[in-house]
Amino acid sequence: MVERFEIVEKAILKMLEDKKYAALRDVLVVMNPSDIAVLFSGMEEKQIPLLFRLLPKELAAESFVEMESEAQELLIRSFSDNELKEIVDELYVDDAADLVEEMPANVVKRILKQADPEMRRSINQILRYPEYSAGSIMTTEYVSLRPNMTVEEAILRIRRQGVDKETIYTCYVTASDRKLLGLVTVKDLLLTENDETPIRDIMLTNLIYANTQTDQEDVAKMLTKYNFLALPVVDGEGRMVGIVTFDDAMDVIEEETTEDMELMGGIIPSEKTYLRSTAWDLFKSRIPWLMLLMLSATFTGLIITSFEDALAAQVALTAFIPMLMGTGGNSGSQSSVTVIRALSLDELRFGDIGRVIWKELRTALLCGIALAVACFAKIWLVDRMLMGNEQITWMIDLVVCLALCVTVIIAKVVGSVLPLVAKVLGADPAVMASPFITTIVDAVSLLVYFLFARSLLL
Amino acid sequence: MVERFEIVEKAILKMLEDKKYAALRDVLVVMNPSDIAVLFSGMEEKQIPLLFRLLPKELAAESFVEMESEAQELLIRSFSDNELKEIVDELYVDDAADLVEEMPANVVKRILKQADPEMRRSINQILRYPEYSAGSIMTTEYVSLRPNMTVEEAILRIRRQGVDKETIYTCYVTASDRKLLGLVTVKDLLLTENDETPIRDIMLTNLIYANTQTDQEDVAKMLTKYNFLALPVVDGEGRMVGIVTFDDAMDVIEEETTEDMELMGGIIPSEKTYLRSTAWDLFKSRIPWLMLLMLSATFTGLIITSFEDALAAQVALTAFIPMLMGTGGNSGSQSSVTVIRALSLDELRFGDIGRVIWKELRTALLCGIALAVACFAKIWLVDRMLMGNEQITWMIDLVVCLALCVTVIIAKVVGSVLPLVAKVLGADPAVMASPFITTIVDAVSLLVYFLFARSLLL
Questions:
Q1: Closest-CA residue in chain B for A380?
Q2: Pick from B169, B360, B366: which is nearest to A169 by CB?
Q3: Is residue A288, in this structure, part of any structural domain at all?
Q4: pLDDT digits (tens, 9 = 90+) for A158-191
Q5: How many domains does chain A have?
Q6: What's the gap between Cα B168 and its chain centre?
Q7: Strands of B180-185's sheet in order across
Q8: Cβ neighbours of residue B221 under 8 Å, at least 6 residues apart?
Q9: How far is A362 from A370, CA to CA, in rounded Å?
Q10: Of A142, A280, B296, B428, which one has the fewest beta carbons inside 10 Å?
Q11: What is the CATH number of the domain that holds A393?
């Protein structure tokens, strides 16, 4: 797929260069808006408005929605008031609200001036809800029906109003005070044989809905869990105010997954894509954790310093520090990654903490013993016999392997428990991932190692 | 949400215990199939068939599809042939194929015996496609139209055939040889004013489709990118064979994300949920990487042994090994996580490698300098003055901080380049994450450290 798209991209740039606008238009009209948006993101600034004006009105608006905000801003600045009005009129309300949120103040002023009064009201309503809430990602355009309409009247209403709605496939049945009573799908309407059946008789009343204040991640999870095309959003009084559609839910899930992965890698999440981030942006999102973890490594330094007697007596011990810390860190991050993911998929709750610890203990014991046995053999065969390091005795080998086994067990328990604790404290479990766990496990593994060394070797 | 659900769960278990079956049935019928499935997963084995028989037929089938395979198998074994036939008749073909794939041979035989001949043929067709291909996740049930039908005829056909189809909202226009010609949405049909308009005139011919062999991850990405409800799947001759619906795409994305995270945590991906995995399952998926990484730490041990002269001359050097290795590992995994995620979102290609290295180099320089300065001050203020460690000289402090800065730079470049290399070699970039990078960076940081130490201190 990707290769084919790159060929199209090159051909289009060539046509643009050769000023073959008629041919160019013929290619563009059969393209998908998402692909056109990708095309724009790889283009020089001055070409963007030129190419955009070649698009027919509806396709232009659809492509505009999919573009990155840099290209959108550039285009709006190049638009006449009339051109801007044409685009704004074609936008769905939630896309318009997104746009307004991302543009600088002077651009926002122009957009709102060109929007018709009803859209301006809707945009302002959506912008009043807290960021990352259902209210802030919903659209206020949906098809609403009344319980006493017949199936035929309902279909007629959809045919009249549908053109401006983001989805017509799920219609919401509301009372005259806008209280949400039920829902009907177009499938239900079409498959009902008697056109005179009142909506009341076929509507689904066992409703799943979000509140305007519900977190967008929870909304996305509800949509995925129940495989809905759209989820209704109600206000504090149970009045219907909008819907969140599945495509917005997919975007939210993608964003939240990226955020989880960034946190797991010790990065402060940012909304910019990698290639759009400057070195300075990357620096700002990476330095806090690096700095914190570097400074907290003071403890490992102190542990080593305070066990200098053991190290001085048995110089060979130093050689195994990286292996011990590394294996401990890896063991811990395996457990934390597993638990973090299970939490984010709602497969685990804090109440399962007992089962988690028991499962991790047994897994850790298996891993610890397998690793210790392998390590014992490796040290003797490779380090002692093959490399001829005479400093390594049976006792040193034993100390290393005992410490390894105990470290793995502690690391796995710590790695699995900390994300659960974070969850119950209301923090994001993903923070308790690899970098954080590693720092704790580093200190623990050294302590265990030196305590074994001191009691068995000195 | 979760809390409310737990209350419902407890109430239902109580009713089941008290044998209040009529009341229980009233509660169940207003529940969503996904929630009922969750309910079953928390239940004792002998209660499952009992509760299942309380569900009305259609809801029973819908809930059955959402259940974990353990519960499904248990239920099938408790079904009479008649009960099994009722459930199988209600299943969509793709769900039936999924079921057949997951059940043991003797259960499969029973299922296929109860399926009607057409469904058996479709199931067998789907099962012939390679695992993780579009063919293996598609459904063969969709609404197909002919180009010469009128809008009215098309709507009539949907009303007649729609009840058995997973989605009716996107209909596919095919020629008599089943070649895919175009698509029409129900929205287009409803919004076309003239009922006599032929489908040919309103169908979309600029089609995006998958091949039966297309990887399921690519299919899911196409559905998300274009915000489609369904994607048509064609065979090698361009004949329509099925569709993949958006809910299956969401499931694929969830699976692939979990797999990425597991690989990033040094775990061999498995399809079992955490609570369903035994300690032995977890052991098997975790021990390979742990073992490999433990053994590869032999190199760090060898490096330390071969620089024993430097360590013996300046015992204080040992104390900073964990900090150096830890910071190097964290720096590298930050870069690898960022690049891995950007690759999986198609924001990066291998061709961007030059831009990536240049960006990472500048970021690393900023991070390296900031960390080195902070570290220099910390060592002097804390380790030397506060803790009174007289062994630490200006020169040792300098060696540590120089090594730190160089390590961070190397770690960030290695961390960002390896996932790109994996991608171009056709491997999963997620393998090149934290555990793997850490092992390389551990060795590099020690080498850099001792080389600086030897040239500046000895």
A1: B298
A2: B169
A3: no
A4: 988 877 788 889 999 999 899 999 999 999 999 9
A5: 3
A6: 28
A7: B144-145, B170-174, B180-185
A8: B346
A9: 12
A10: A280
A11: 1.10.357.20
> Do A411 and A301 belong together in one domain?
yes
Is pLDDT above 70 for B369? yes
Tell the residue number behind the tokens 């063969």, with chain if given. Answer: B140
Q: Is residue A400 over pLDDT 90?
A: yes
Reported ipTM: 0.81
Chains A, B: CB pairs < 8 Å: 341
Task: Please give the distance of CA B329 from its chain centroid, rounded to a whole number.
Answer: 25
Could you say which of B87, B106, B132 is where a domain stops? B132
How are beta strands B170-174 and B180-185 bridged, if at all? Answer: antiparallel
DSSP state of A181: E
Closest CA to A348 of B441, B275, B408: B275
Could you say which DSSP state residue A80 is in? -
Last residue within a domain, chosen from B253, B276, B311: B253
pLDDT reported for residue B1: 45
pTM for the full predicted model: 0.82
**Confidence band for A2, pLDDT divided at 50, 70 and 90:** very low
Please answer yes or no on whether B298 and A346 come within 8 Å at the CB atom.
no
Res. A3 pLDDT band, cuts 50 70 90: low
Which of chain B's residues have a Cβ under 8 Å away from the Cβ of A280? Answer: 366
Same-domain status, A311 and A176: no
Q: What value, to the nearest 5°, has the Cα angle with vertex B295 and ends B293 and B297?
A: 70
Q: Are residues B31 and B75 in the same domain?
A: yes
Pairing of strands A144-145, A230-234: unpaired
The pLDDT, as a whole number, for residue A327 is 92
- Arithmetic mean of pLDDT, A324-332: 91
Which residue out of A25, A28, A303, A334 would a mutagenesis test of the B interface target, given it has the greatest number of B Cβ atoms within 10 Å?
A334
Torsion of CA B104, B107, B108, B111, to 10 degrees: -160
Indicate whether B402 belongs to any domain: yes
A234 beta partners: A211, A240
**Predicted confidence band at A287 (pLDDT cuts at 50, 70, 90)?**
very high
- Domain residues for A14? 2-129
The answer to whether position A259 is within a domain reads no
Question: B151: helix, coil or strand?
Answer: helix
Asked if residue A373 and residue A301 are part of one domain, the reply reads yes
Residue of A28, A184, A337 to mutate, testing the B interface (most B Cβ within 10 Å of its Cβ):
A337
Question: What pLDDT score does B2 carry?
Answer: 47
Q: By the 8 A CB rule, do A229 and A245 touch?
A: yes
Q: Are B125 and B181 in a shared domain?
A: no
What pLDDT is stored for residue A114 in this prediction? 86
Rounded Cα distance between B317 and B308, Å, is 11
Residue A271 falls within a domain, yes or no? no
Residue A68 structure tokens: 């990155």
- Mean pLDDT, residues A85-97 taken together: 86
Q: What is the CATH number of the domain that holds B68?
A: 1.25.60.10
- C-alpha B232/C-alpha B123 separation (Å) is 18
Task: Identify whether residues B125 and B153 lie together within a single domain.
Answer: no
For residues A347 and A398, membership in a common domain is answered with yes
Token pair for B411: 């770690």
Torsion (CA) A98, A101, A107, A109 in degrees, nearest 10: 100
The percent of residues in chain A predicted with pLDDT above 90, rounded, is 35
Question: Residue A1 CB: number of other CB atoms within 10 A?
Answer: 13
CATH number reported for the structural domain that contains residue A225 in this entry: 3.10.580.10
Comparing alpha-carbon positions, the chain B residue that sits nearest to A277 is: B359
Per-residue model confidence as pLDDT tens digits over B128-145: 888 889 998 888 889 999
On chain A, the residues whose CB falls within 8 A of the CB of B325 are 322, 325-326
Both tokens of residue A1? 């797929």
Q: What share of chain A is helix, strand, coil (3-state, %, to 5)?
A: 70, 5, 25
More confident residue, B436 or A240: A240
Kindly state whether residues A149 and A198 are assigned to the same domain. yes
